[in-house]
Amino acid sequence: MKTYNVKYKDYDTLSKYISNNYIIKYNNILVQVFSGIGKKEFIEEVIKNLISLIPQCKIIGSTSAGEILNGKIFENECLISISVFAKTTIKTILIKDKMSDFNKGVEVARQLISLDTKAIISFADASIDGQDFLNGINSINNKVVVSGGLAGKSKSIDEIYVFTENGVEKDAVVAVALESKDLYVNNESSFNWIPIGREHEITEAEGKVIKSIDNIPAQEFYSKYIVTNNNEPIERIGAKFPLMIKKNNRYVGRPVLKFINDEEITISSKIDIGEKIRIGYGDLSEILKGSRDVYDKMKKCPGESLFIYSCDSRKNFLKEMATKEIAPISGNSSVSGFYTYGEFNNVNNENMLYAETMTILVLSEDMNARIKIDTELNDKCQYYSDEDSTLYNLIKTTGEELNQLNLKLEEKIKEKTEELEKQYYTDNLTNLENRNKLILDLSQGKYDKLVIIDIKSFNDINDFYGNTVGDVVLKALSKLISLYCDKNNFNSYRVNSDIFAVVDNVGLKEEFIEKIRFLQNVINNQCFFYKDGKIYITVTMAIALGKESLFERAEMALHYAKKNKKLFQIYKEELDIYEGIKKNIIWTKKIKDAIAENRIVPFFQPIVNNRLGTVEKCEALIRMIDENGEIISPYFFLDISKKAGLYKELTIIMLEKTFEVLDNTDYEISINLLLQDIISSEIRALIIQKLKKAKNPKKVVFEIVESEGIENFNEVTEFIQEIKKYGAKIAIDDFGTGYSNFNYLMKLDVDYIKIDGSIIKNIHKDKSAEMVTKTIVLFAKELGIETIAEFVSEEEIYNKIKDLNIDYSQGYYFSEPKENIE
Predict the structure, then answer these.
(1) I need a surface site. Which of 67, 435, 705, 820 has the fewest CB within 10 A?
(2) Where is the EAL domain (predicted)?
(3) Domains of the chain by start residue, with CATH
(4) Global pTM?
């Protein structure tokens, strides 16, 4: 192949050039036209003359923002590049249909790409979204190199056009495919702006207009880093300091073109909300060094013709240095190109839209041919000072270090997110998936069969043997269930302390029921060992079938089974299980009425200093006063309030009324919180508001239930840190139940541990309870945490507690909860 390049003047001059070079004798001819004259009549005349002189040629062209020939840059000229091929066939296409830019790319790929297509050269109107267009091509074939770019113009009064031998069009796309088994294609690009600073996010954008970055008005954001104002020529500043957008883990430059509306900025291509950006920095010397590196690579590639598709913003930024950039190819007549409004290039099998980039396409039908490139011309010119080079190196090195830091941080965040997600969906004790995961899976319709497995009287095991033994039994049972499920392609979960679940979505209902009955028989006959002891358990199983409300129905069946002393129950509509529902409805109304009539009140139970024997603190406990003035324990209404969606209102009432009392007492008052209170933004905001207004917020203690699994939630740590700013304290309630993690106590910065009543009530006669308590107290003393014994009901227990060096006691031995603090 060979390329002939000529500036168009008129028909006669063109005719003479074609005749003198015997171009008409070739069959496969591609003509590229780079027109710095944006007048349709002129371009149509050029096409007409070309077809007249070379009837067999295929034509593709574009208006340009500058033309490249013989190492020189021209403007307002028309450059004709004629490439003749011996072994390559050529197909062109012009698309002006009203279809999406993505579909334009799809259409180009479908019509032009064949098994032997090695490259596509394409020009598109600047109104086209270049990346969407290339994405369309990539969706069909992302390996074929696409070169070219978006059409430009030299004069503001000119129009932008793209064209083939079949016509001249606006808002269109043209492309040519080069097909050959013997065509060698190499493409390279030179950018060499570097990203600096941290990554930011586009938070509001429309088309090419960026409205906000990191929720800051875009113009304010840009001016914050690049000190400028509306009186400065933003085009050059925006080219030197472009926005660099993260695309396929690469940063591509987008120059800032102008400021609008005192808030928004316009860049050279469309950008989407959520895209990541960094500020870019361009240094003349380093940009030219990058070009030299590209030329060095091109010298080693087969090459008979070289085409440059470079960016108009790059030319405007480089100014007189733009000529220096293309100087190394000035001695080769087979080199031509033009300046675009955005360049196409293929990197790592992905065609992408670039800006401020010089892209190069080298073609050859002879593997031994080489393009003449004199890279030494770059070295003969000194474009920079030592200070410039030092500054660039400083910015580049620190920028790379920051980028590596950001990448490591992203990895850590990803790892932590995955870890937290795993914790949220995994039971700590058994490593089975937990209730959260079961509810999620059921909500997504993954299963149509569910059995709930409940251990009968499991609290008796904990009370008799201690929690450690209870945990051993739970682990062993979970392993048994898990192995059985693996064998039968079921999935298993631990729903809560002594309840498991098994699900299926494959087999027949009858087979599932039969296999679950067999599992129940295995469990009920299994002997669990702990040291020399043998422990047997009995489980109740409740099955629900179908896709609708599986968990709720299984719970109803379990409730029915327990109430009627059955060990196996399948949910059926005709079961008499609605008495509980009626009861819930009645209690829901009672709660609503009590809220409306201001009958939800705090009662206060004193907490005694064991060393001094005096009352220093008390706990606020919720009570309902019924229509007849009777005091109702939360046992009857608190769980129902959660299911009825009324629990938050009760919490708000308790906070409001307890803080009122707090300002009129010298006692420290404890307020109970559940995890759902802590993660509620409304409740947290109310707590902070109350702490800010409280006369002495140091008298407030928030009790968090230990059995809620709080070690899994960052929200708890954040909440504690926030309330401690005001001097408030934290107590862990019911400590010692279930799985007590001493490790997270060190992380949560708690002030008190309240030892659970199930341990305290037997401490005077149960050696294991005494040992557990000693461990808790010893650990708490080491951490400087004070201990409180709950449910102290008699003198013997109180004396034992004092012997064990527990700091405080609470229980009916001292006082029942009362309406007023005494």
Answers:
(1) 820
(2) 584-822
(3) 2-189+287-379 (no CATH), 194-281 (2.40.10), 433-577 (3.30.70.270), 582-809 (3.20.20.450)
(4) 0.53
